[in-house]
Amino acid sequence: MPPAPRTKPGRPNLIEHHPRRAEIELARLAGGTLQEVADRFGVPRSSLHRHMTRMPVEEHARLKAVASALAEQQAALFRVAAIAIAAGPSRSPSFAHGAAR
Predict the structure, then answer these.
(1) How far is CA 79 from CA 61, 84, 85, 87, in A?
(2) Helix, strand, coil proportions of the chain in percent (round to 5)?
(3) Cα 64 from Cα 41, distance rounded (Å)
(4) Which residues, 6+ apart, have CB-to-CB distance to 27 below 8 Å?
(5) What is the DSSP secondary-structure string of 61-92?
(6) Distance separating alpha carbons of residues 23 and 43, to the nearest angstrom
(7) pLDDT top residue among 33 and 6
(8) Could you tell me which residue ranges the HTH iclR-type domain spans (predicted)?
């Protein structure tokens, strides 16, 4: 029978237990630098680096695919917004002019 996996003493992983963990991981995998993401979410850069390098390969690939899909959706939204802006005020949807009327 193989030995039970050892658990290391010490502090828990800050990113793993962070309430915005998914956002942090996606921001990093979407291309944000370690420093940008760490500053944005108020976590130490070293903790973020350690978390990302210890992430299982399967989880990394799954999250990378999600980040890629989100980036594609964002690009599509920007294209729609650009078309609406280029169409001018008379052809833009009412929400583009502000909901407070």
Answers:
(1) 27, 9, 10, 12
(2) 60, 0, 40
(3) 19
(4) 36, 37, 40, 41
(5) HHHHHHHHHHHHHHHHHHHHHHHHHHH-TTTS
(6) 13
(7) 33
(8) 26-53
- Kindly list the distances between the CA atom of residue 85 and the CA atoms of 72, 79, 95, in Å, as whole numbers in the listed order: 20, 10, 12
Q: What are the φ/ψ torsions at residue 82 (nearest 5 degrees)?
A: -65, -40
pLDDT tens digit string along 17-61? 999 999 999 999 988 999 999 999 999 999 999 999 999 999 989
DSSP 97: G
Tokens 């990093």 appear where? 28
Torsion of CA 54, 60, 63, 67, to 10 degrees: 100
Report the predicted TM-score, pTM, of the whole model to 2 decimal places: 0.66
Contact 30, 63 (CB under 8 A): no
Under a CB-based contact definition with an 8 Å cutoff, are residues 47 and 18 in contact?
no
